[in-house]
From TrEMBL:
Name of the protein in its database record: DNA-binding transcriptional regulator, Lrp family
GO terms of biological process kind: response to amino acid
PROSITE patterns in alphabetical order: HTH_ASNC_2 (PS50956)
A molecular function GO annotation: sequence-specific DNA binding
HTH asnC-type domain: residues covered: 5-66
PANTHER family tied to this protein: LEUCINE-RESPONSIVE REGULATORY PROTEIN
Keywords of the record: DNA-binding, Transcription, Transcription regulation
SMART domains, sorted: HTH_ASNC (SM00344)
Amino acid sequence: MDHLIDDIDKKIMQLLQQNARMPISQISKQNAMSPPSVKERIMKLEEKNIIASYTTVFRLQELNRGMTTFILVKTEQCQELVDFCHNADEVTDLFRISGEYNYLIKIQTGSVGEAAAFQDTLVTLGASKSHISMKNIIENRVLL
């Protein structure tokens, strides 16, 4: 399985992670490459599924969803929790974790009351504990 990427691929990926809509012409200038060469490299990264998708980042504060809460859940009703989270608009991420609790849910709401109401709906699925984010220090860090 050949998933090795070189420094040029890394530079292209860094630029795309900062701005997925960056024109190929601009990427090629920053890498001193021809646009067809850059396009070919991007296509290969997509084919290898190293670049899996392109997304849009929203300013959640402007959508009245600026409060981030992490909820730990201890449940034996795993599939029910997963299904519930798939259908809940507040849920942005769901993680299977080790330790005393077996799931970590990340939700985005507009208020503490909305977060509490969401957590109240989990009571039939098991014990839960919430942690409200006071400030997001690092978000969507460029990994390369």
